[in-house]
Write a structure and sequence with these properties.
The protein has 297 residues and is an alpha/beta fold. The protein folds into three domains: 2-85, Orthogonal Bundle (Arc Repressor Mutant, subunit A), CATH 1.10.10.10; 96-157 and 267-295, Periplasmic binding protein-like II (D-Maltodextrin-Binding Protein, domain 2); 163-263, D-Maltodextrin-Binding Protein, domain 2. It has helices at 2-17, 20-26, 31-45, 61-85, 100-107, 112-117, 169-173, 223-231, 245-249, 279-292, and strands at 50-52, 57-59, 92-98, 121-127, 141-145, 154-161, 163-167, 189-191, 198-205, 208-219, 236-240, 254-256, 265-271. Strands 9-10-8-11-7-12 form a six-stranded mixed β-sheet. Strands 4-3-5-13-6 form a five-stranded mixed β-sheet. It has a two-stranded antiparallel sheet with strand order 1-2.
Length: 297
């Protein structure tokens, strides 16, 4: 039975990665072993589940139908195992997608107590600043900032992260510190990984609202990189407070226009719509939502 279940889990990963090699690597198998086990599964099922070519591995119509049914079965088994134990103990592997900065600064320092409470649970943190494909990467839950683009996914909001402008004291000493949002036109901006070199911000203060559109001369593909650039005095950075709280605390960065407020950034836990949410994913989200409450708005 265990061999069949492991083969079914392997089948799911091959289906989502379109690769025997990648799926096998995730589960500690060689490419030949992966191919052999899938062939044996196809023989047992009595149907071709994949079309194999030199470029890709794609599902057949029968394979797509089989995938839908198998994922439902595996999710139900996870739920059944969890319920049968009759405790809060969590087991298995949990794949979590999140940005590098959020992972390094907020999740890793807090996750120890959660892992201690669930010693049989293995957690894979997939930290990238580009948004991962949850299905292809086999992600159980992703933590994402800002507006959600995947309307097919379900989500839970963990909190709102204050957004602010920051710069190094050295940068502000060498320029004329802005007093009004319109003064920002004379300044250099650092743009993060989420897009092109132009941004529009809406500032609010005492009932006044001012929209400013700034162009960035420096675009950096990593959130930690843009914070380092601000510390190095390369310009003004707009960021969530969670991305620079350490630098603000020790004075390497200081707020710019602190009396003007920007709309906070939502932080959401996103669950793939293709399968049922795992108990471990729900538990981690609930834990982090509670842990992050003191620093959200």
């Amino acid at each position: 039975m265990n061999d069949k279940l492991s083969t079914l889990r392997l089948f799911v990963r091959v289906a989502h990665t379109s690769s025997f090699t990648k799926a096998g690597r995730e589960l500690g198998l060689s490419q030949p072993s992966t191919s052999r086990r899938i062939s044996e599964l196809e023989e047992e099922v009595g149907a071709a589940l994949f079309v194999r070519s030199t470029r890709a591995v794609t599902l057949t119509e029968a394979g797509a139908d089989y995938l839908t049914r198998v994922e439902a079965i595996l999710s139900a088994l996870d739920e059944a195992d969890h319920a049968a134990r009759g405790t809060a103990e969590l087991r298995g592997h949990l794949r979590v997608a999140l940005s590098t900065s959020f992972g390094v600064r907020e999740v890793i320092p807090r996750i120890g107590r959660f892992m201690s409470a669930h010693p049989a649970l293995h957690i894979d943190l997939l930290m990238e600043d580009d948004r991962q494909d949850l299905i292809v990467e086999g992600v159980d839950v992703a933590f994402r900032f800002g507006q959600l683009k995947d309307s097919n996914a379900t989500s839970t909001m963990l909190g709102r992260c204050p957004r602010l402008l920051v710069a190094s004291p050295g940068y502000l000493a060498n320029t004329r510190a802005p007093v009004e949002p319109s003064d920002l036109a004379a300044h250099t901006f650092i743009i993060g990984p989420s897009g092109a070199g132009v941004r529009e911000w809406t500032f609010e203060k005492s009932g006044r609202r001012i929209v400013f559109r700034g162009e960035g001369r420096l675009t950096i593909s990593l959130n930690e990189g843009k914070t380092a650039a601000a510390v190095a005095g390369l310009g003004i950075l707009t960021t969530g407070s969670w991305g620079c709280c350490a630098e603000l605390s020790d004075g390497r960065l200081v707020p710019v226009l602190p009396d003007w407020k920007l709309k906070p950034i939502e932080v959401n836990a996103v669950f793939p719509a293709a399968r049922a949410t795992r108990p471990a994913a729900r538990a981690l989200v609930a834990y982090l939502a509670d842990e992050l409450k003191p620093i959200s708005v």
